[in-house]
Amino acid sequence: MTANNDEEAFKLFYNQCFVRLLRYSYSLTRSREVAEEITNDVFMHCWQKRETLRHIQNPEVYLFVVARNKAVDFRRKQANFREIDISEEERIQIAFDSNPEELMISAEMVRKMEISIEQLPPKCKTIYLMIKQHGLKYKEVADILNLSIKTVENQLSIAIKRLTSAVRFTLEKEDIYK
Question: Which of 10, 69, 110, 155 has the largest count of CB atoms under 10 Å?
Answer without folding.
Answer: 155
